[in-house]
């Protein structure tokens, strides 16, 4: 079991939301903006880096940040998600026990977080949630992989390359695992009584 207070998290919220048609971070999720839901779910982690880019000022307006959450700006957000992840990883201080990675459009739930953090041990390199036979988010990396995470780029397929180099522990979590890329994804999630996340495809590691 990892100690969340000694671990870190990176939330990416820098993208253009082109497929959704409007900012995914501001979608209503359980009566609050999705970005607020995400940071609130990670309030007990040691440090959280919220990576912003497109319309960063708008996203921060009215956002209540827990003390452990620090917004950081990615000026190169148009170049791909790997650039945002690198900004987040570079902004981490010290040597975290583990590093959780999640997009703002992949709603977290505390039950799944509890299962993932309880299942991960010191020998694990990577822990990935699985629901209905499919992998999803959030993915948790051992802190010792931070140098590799800081070196990712789009050309080498971002997080996929790191995951391929290491054994992963799959942990069963309640589903579905939502990944809110398109209006129909959001409509399906809102119609579903259980607000977990949609089973991600292999895109979960992009």
Task: Name a few traits of the molecule.
single chain; 206 residues; alpha/beta; Spore Coat Polysaccharide Biosynthesis Protein SpsA, Chain A; 8-stranded mixed β-sheet; two-stranded antiparallel sheet; 21% strand; disordered C terminus
Q: In the CATH scheme, what's the topology name?
A: Spore Coat Polysaccharide Biosynthesis Protein SpsA, Chain A
Number of strands: 10
What is the arithmetic mean of pLDDT?
89
Beta-strand residue percentage: 15-25%
Number of helices: 7
H/E topology pattern: EEEHEHEHEHEEEHHEH
| Main β sheet profile | 8 strands, mixed
Low-confidence runs: 193-206
Mass-distribution shape? globular
CATH class: Alpha Beta
Please report the distance between the alpha carbons of the first and last residues: 26 Å
CATH architecture: Alpha-Beta Complex
Which structural class is indicated by helix and strand composition? alpha/beta
How many domains make up the 3D coordinates?
Answer: 1
User: In CATH, what is the homologous superfamily?
Assistant: Spore Coat Polysaccharide Biosynthesis Protein SpsA, Chain A
